[in-house]
Design goal:
Elements (H helix, E strand, L loop, with lengths): L1 H25 L3 E5 L15 E4 L4 H7 L6 E4 L3 H11 L4 E4 L6 H13 L4 E4 L13 H9 L3 E8 L2 E3 L7 E3 L4 E6 L13 H23 L1
Parallel strand pairs: 1-9, 2-5, 2-6, 3-4, 3-5
Antiparallel strand pairs: 6-9, 7-8
Helix pairs in contact: 4-5
């Protein structure tokens, strides 16, 4: 009984209220994109991609790319269930699984969705870290689907960063923000060693972090 009441409060009151308040706050943001022509959902992309971003940037991305019907991978843990409910309220589809639990099924589910023409967005250092370290999941998915990986990064001028493992970022009201896209990267289906691709993706994403920081200073 106590669990039922707790779940009711969480899913029927707390999450809807938090999502609604954030949507109102996000109306004050001023975001811009760098290098997004042809690869951003906002700039006339013609293909579907596997978008790679850091776990800490999830909140800002939910607002900026809301209602594009992209697929977000949410873990099988309790916090993944909460994340799945949250992303749905911003017009995303939530697939469940991770590299640690339900990994094989998640890959097959994501392949099916990618084959249907959906974009897939993956927090490449999630669900548990290490922070800003690319995992192998998105690389295996790229091999399996033949889709290109598009790395992107985000930063905001005014923000709060939590003390969580990922230093989760919350943009403050009226802030300016920057989204920077990297070059699409393909992982060949016959690639036996994916480590070089993982390193390349990580270097690209860390470089995009610096590009965002520098853009906010201008």
């Amino acid at each position: 009984m106590e669990k039922n009441v707790s779940d009711f409060l969480l899913y029927r009151i707390t999450i809807p209220l938090a999502a609604g308040l954030y949507k109102l706050m996000a109306l004050t943001y001023s975001f811009r994109e760098l290098n997004g022509a042809g690869i951003s959902p906002r700039q006339g992309k013609k293909n579907n991609f596997l978008y790679a971003f850091w776990h800490s940037r999830m909140l800002a991305c939910l607002h900026f790319y809301r209602n594009y019907n992209a697929v977000v991978l949410a873990s099988m843990h309790k916090d993944g269930e909460i994340a799945a409910e949250l992303v749905r309220r911003f017009g995303f589809f939530a697939a469940r699984g991770s590299t640690t639990r339900g990994g094989a099924k998640a890959l097959l589910d994501l392949k099916r969705l990618a084959d249907e023409g959906r974009d897939i967005a993956i927090t490449v250092d999630g669900p548990r870290g290490p922070r800003k370290t690319v995992g192998n999941g998105i690389l295996y998915l790229a091999k399996l689907t033949g889709k290109e990986i598009v790395p992107f990064a985000f930063d905001a001028k005014w923000k709060i960063q939590l003390s969580s493992w990922d230093r989760f970022l919350i943009p403050l009201p009226f802030t300016k923000g920057v989204v920077a896209f990297g070059r699409p990267m393909k992982v060949p289906a016959d690639a036996e060693d994916i480590e070089p691709y993982r390193k390349k993706l990580q270097e690209e994403m860390l470089g995009l972090d610096r590009e965002c920081e520098e853009a906010l200073l201008r």
